[in-house]
Specification:
The protein is built from twelve helices and 23 strands. It is of the alpha+beta class. It has two domains: about 40-340 and about 405-450, no CATH class; about 355-390. The strands form seven sheets. Strands 6-5-4-1-8 form a five-stranded mixed sheet, covered by helices on one side. Strands 9-14-15-16 form a four-stranded mixed sheet. α1 (about 5-15) runs antiparallel to α2 (about 20-30), α5 packs across α7 and α8 packs antiparallel against α9. The radius of gyration is 23 Å and the shape is globular. The two termini are about 45 Å apart. About 45% of the residues are buried. Mean pLDDT is about 90; it is low at about 1-5 and about 5-40. This is Neutral/alkaline non-lysosomal ceramidase.
């Protein structure tokens, strides 16, 4: 008897409940030839540790922290997609999610070079790397912190280790790709909170106190959508999943141990639900002004944690697990096997935020003050970036970075390198012609700087001032426009 194709097996499972299984399956493999695989989807997935075996300095704070223990391992999770017409490859996408604070310096380009050596047939320009933004992952930049000369893995050594681990996982995923079905779904979970408090005088502050008389409200919109992209085998069992949450994973950001933050607990729950074979990519949506930290209601939330017997990380994971299951329980009724796939690689060209004379003077005063104590090196360098920009800037300067836009069936996936304020992500999703749009921030080279809105700049404070942001609101609107144009070109 002729073996059923993946498409036939997936569809037969869905139709079995309707009582018309035999007729439909017979039509699929006994009837006239139907080209169901004009854009057959091949999918591969893999995961690997990116946690070193020796003590390592942690990135994400202004002071030096050296981790001598691992609370939860940081991992890299890989997803490769290829659409094919018979023996002809039509399109590819290689997506890597890393439990890191950002993707520093030349890390992505080095991973591409290493992958090209292992897989010369692959177009490595179609590979991108994103960070989940855990603040308890290894440092990747030499000289950023004052580190001991011995007893700690140095940043350059760590990057060598990272590149080899990730490129190996990409090769494993590519070589293991197989026909698969894909679904997309939408859930909701309260994970992120806008982290900027606004006061009576019009000022704002990240993590500002909300229990004082001057407090007037929370600055911006909160995005609680959980976008879920799942890949299914012939038995309708998911083996890979990308979960997009508009929230950086920084609940335990101040600790002195390696910790993947809420993504570790989330992956554990999802594997408990769907099986240990499941690879889970964590995508951080537009969340420059969002985080998992509570801005108010702390007492009530703490009480509920005690009543449930959960830690805060476990509570976040519980909410995400429920949201993913709600999305998948419906989306598994619409698994596609012959989707259209197009992958654009383009360059964002954004106007830089021009530093004023007053801003330069203020930054220089801070450099002079902080330079008197070596312990302030990180903060001093942060301010010095502003004075350096002031010396070098010219009208018309552009901030240029690569970004990706993918059409996969009815959905769009788009990337950017910033901690992008949530309003910009909402604009992209609202203006996109896709049925569902996945926005992934902190992707690609030198990611991690904030991109604030007009109202945030008016309020001031960290994340909305020149030391935090090479690009300002004009650049933010340009990013939205260029991204939407690229997405909608795939539907026009």
């Amino acid at each position: 008897m002729k073996t059923l194709s993946l498409a036939a097996r997936l569809i037969s499972s869905a139709f079995a409940r309707t009582g018309i299984l035999i007729a439909c399956v017979t039509a699929l493999w006994c009837g006239p030839a139907v080209d169901l695989h004009a854009a057959e989807l091949l999918v591969g997935a893999a995961r690997t540790t990116i946690t070193p075996d020796e003590p390592v300095a942690l990135s994400g704070q202004f002071h030096t922290r050296v981790a001598k223990e691992v609370e939860s391992p940081c991992t890299a999770n890989v997803l490769v997609l290829e659409s094919r017409d018979g023996d002809k490859s039509l399109e590819t996408a290689i997506m890597v999610s890393c439990d890191l604070v950002v993707i520093r310096e030349d890390v992505q380009s080095r991973i591409r070079t290493a992958v090209a050596a292992k897989l010369p047939e692959v177009d490595v320009q179609k590979l991108f790397v994103n960070a989940t933004h855990t603040h308890t992952a290894p440092v990747m930049v030499e000289g950023k912190y004052v580190l001991p000369a011995e007893g700690v893995i140095q940043p350059a050594e760590y990057v060598d280790f990272l590149v080899e681990q990730v490129s190996g996982a990409v090769a494993e995923a590519w070589n293991g790709r197989k026909p698969a079905g894909v679904s997309w779904g939408l859930g909701q979970a309260v994970v992120a909170h806008n982290r900027r408090a606004v006061y009576a005088n019009g000022s704002a502050a990240m993590y500002g106190k909300t229990n004082k008389p001057e407090f007037r409200g929370i600055e911006g919109y909160e995005d609680h959508d959980i976008d879920v992209l799942s890949f299914w085998d012939a038995e309708k069992k998911p083996f890979a999943m990308a979960v997009d949450v508009a929230c950086p994973s920084q609940e335990v950001e101040g600790r002195r141990a390696v910790n993947a933050d809420f993504w570790h607990e989330t992956r554990e729950l999802l594997r408990k639900r769907y099986g240990q074979q499941l690879d889970v990519l964590g995508w951080c949506g537009a969340a420059g002004d969002q985080s998992p930290h509570l801005m108010y209601n702390r007492a009530a939330e703490t009480r509920m944690l005690k009543l449930r017997g959960l830690t805060r990380l476990e509570e976040i994971a519980r909410r995400l697990d429920v949201a993913v299951e709600e999305a998948n329980s419906a989306a598994q009724n619409d698994i596609r096997t012959d989707v259209k796939m197009v992958h654009l690689v383009r360059t964002l060209k954004l106007p830089v935020w021009m530093v004023t004379e007053a801003q330069n003077a203020a930054a220089q005063a801070e450099v002079d003050r902080l330079s008197k104590d070596p312990a302030n090196q990180r903060r001093m360098n942060w301010q010095k970036k502003v004075t350096d920009r002031y010396k070098e800037q010219k009208e018309g300067d552009l901030y240029e970075r690569q970004f990706h836009v993918i059409r996969l069936g009815d959905i769009a996936i788009c990337t950017n390198p910033f901690e992008l304020y949530t309003d910009y992500g909402v604009q992209i999703k609202a203006r996109s012609k896709a049925v569902q749009t996945f926005v992934i921030q902190l992707t690609g080279e030198q990611s991690g700087t904030y991109l604030p809105t007009v109202r945030a700049v008016e309020g001031g404070s960290y994340s909305a001032i020149p030391p935090s942001c090479p690009v300002g609101p004009k650049g933010g609107q340009a990013l939205v426009d260029q991204t939407v144009e690229a997405i909608n070109s795939l539907w026009d």
